[in-house]
Structures are given as structure tokens and as C-alpha cells.
Amino acid sequence: MTKNIKIYKLLTLWFLVLLLAIVISLFVGSTGITWKFENQLDWTIFYKLRVPRTLLALIAGMGLVLSGQIYQTILNNPLADSFTLGLASGATFGSALAVFLGVSIWFVPLFSIFFSLLTLIIVVLITETMVKTFHVATMILSGIFIGAFFSSALYILLLLKPNKVNSMVSYMFGSVSSAETITVEITGGVTLICIIFLFAMSHFIKIIQLGDDKAITLGVNVRVVSWCCLLIAAIMTAVIISFTGIIGFIGMIVPQVVRRVYKVSVRIQMILNLLIGGSLLLIADTVGRVIISPIQIPVGIVLSIIAIPIMMYLMITEQRKKEKG
Fold first, then answer.
1. For 105, which DSSP code?
2. What pLDDT sits at residue 12?
3. Fewest CB atoms less than 10 Å from the CB: which of 4, 47, 80, 281?
């Protein structure tokens, strides 16, 4: 009973933090608006700019962090996320290619999903072929190589159509500034469906954590469940990245911190990752908007500045634990 109360208080705390981050994101920016909405300009800024941007940041933070947890859990790799596995670069290239070809906005996520899944399959197959298992170093190196390839291909697209540089370059740094109602509808709908599926599979994910042998003994088809989870996470990530560009590190660091600090079940970890991921990306986007206003820093850059020192700290502490062990 005491443990349940602590978990309830923990979830309530992070839910309140998320609500506060949403309010700050809606009302703080380079152009001030009042709570009273005294003129038409305030309404326009609020509903046409702030609301879509806040919702897209919320969706992106939740989706990227939850997918990071799935990658790390299924692949048993603490460094796995859409950025290190190369999925972000693949999805970004797909989105940029769609922009390059001038296709409808409805087809942009399809291009992103295709190249993201292609990247995932290539990375996993390379890793399995080389070491017959999901080896940490080999998988990350494969992801980095594939990501570098797609980044190079993206640069070629920029050279071929310089007039589309602005729209393509935004994909390279990660931003929610171009949020519109339609982008929120697409990302929100897909992300919600993926989250529901992942929560429905959380019981199997918990069993897989016990090890392949125990999972098989309990009647779980480890390979099928693993691939289903990875594909759902990859689709969710690809759709988000198709409209925001590369937002790195958040999907790697937040799940690690949650797993280390809060010793709770997989499902509670998923809820915490959703709350913390949404809050963090909203706060980072708000900071990027106001810190050197009116110039706006892309949220991907803000998160990188915040995340890199944290990542270094996690690596150092992990090494010290191994030495003591």
C-alpha cells in the first residue's frame, strides 16, 4: 500500500510539472500575450501559433522518449534510441526527399516511415550477421554509419535544390516552429495509436526483460514480440521526425534516468517517460524561444546542450559502478 501511494504521488508530481510546462509554453514567447485576450492579435498568436507548437512539442517529447525506452528494453542496449540507431537520419532523409519531390504533406510521413524502417532492418541485420546477437557496440556503430550515409544523401539534396534549403535544413536541427493544425493531427493520431499498442504489449515487454530463455518458457515468442515493438516504435518516431526533424538524445537519456532513479514496473516507467519527455521538450522549446529573443534556437540544439553533459555524467558513473563491481 505504501509503495502504491509513493507511485501515485510521483505520477501526480510529474503530471503537475507537465501542466505547468504546457501553460508556460502557451503564454511565454518573444511576442507576449495576455490571459484576457484583449485583441484579435492575441487570439491569432494563441490559436494559430502557440497551441499547435505546444501540442507538437508535447507529442514529440512523449513519442521520442517512449520509443527510446522500447529500443533500450527490447535491444538490451542503454545507448539505443532513434538518433544512435540511425533511424532519425533515415526518417529525416525520407522527409527531405518528400519535400524535394514536392509531394503532398499527407505523404511526407510515409516517406519518413519507409526510410526509418529500412534503417532499422539494416542495422539489426548487420548486427545479427556480425555477432549473432544484439551487441551494444556493433549496433551503435552500425547506426552511426547508416545515419552518416543518410546525412550525406540529405546534403546532396540540398545541393540539387538550393531553393529548398530552408525547409530541408530545419530537419537537420530539430524544431517545432513550423507546427500547424494538420501536422498536430497526423502526429497526434499516429502517436496515440502507437502508445496504446505499446501499453497493450507492456506485459510481454516485462517478460522479455527476464531473458529470452525465461520468456520462451512462459510462452512468449520473443522474436515476434520484439520485432512488433521495434516496428511500432520506429513508425511513431518516423512520423514525429517527419515534421520536427532530428531531435537527438532525449530518447536516450530520459529512459536511462527513469530506470536508474525510479525502481518501478515497466508500465509505470512508460507513464513516467511520457510525462517527463513531454515536459522536457516543452521546457527546451520555450527556452529556445526566449533566451535570445527574437532569434529562436531550434529545440534539438537546446536539448543537445542540456543532454550532452548529462550523458557524460551517466557514462562516468556507469564506468565507476563497473570498476567497483
1. G
2. 92
3. 4
User: What CATH number should be reported for the domain holding residue 199?
Assistant: 1.10.3470.10
C-alpha grid cell for residue 152? 550525406
Structural domain containing residue 236: 2-324
The type of residue at 295 is I
Mean of pLDDT values over 115-141:
76
Q: Render the burial of 93-116: b for 16+ CB within 10 Å, e for the rest.
A: bbbbbbbbeeeeeeebbebbbebb
State the average pLDDT over residues 133-162: 78
All cell numbers assigned to 43:
487570439
Q: Are 95 and 242 in contact (CB under 8 A)?
A: yes
Q: At how many degrees (to 10) do helices 266-290 and 181-200 cross?
A: 160
Q: What pLDDT, on the 0 to 100 scale, is given for residue 84? A: 81
Q: Torsion over CA of 52, 53, 56 and 58, rounded to 10 degrees? A: -110
Q: Is 17 helix (H, G, I), strand (E, B) or coil?
A: helix
Question: What is d(CA 305, CA 247) in angstroms, rounded to the nearest whole number?
Answer: 12
Domain count for the chain? 1
Looking up cell 556503430 gives 141
* Amino acid type, 135: H
Tell me the DSSP string of 185-198.
Answer: HHHHHHHHHHHHHH
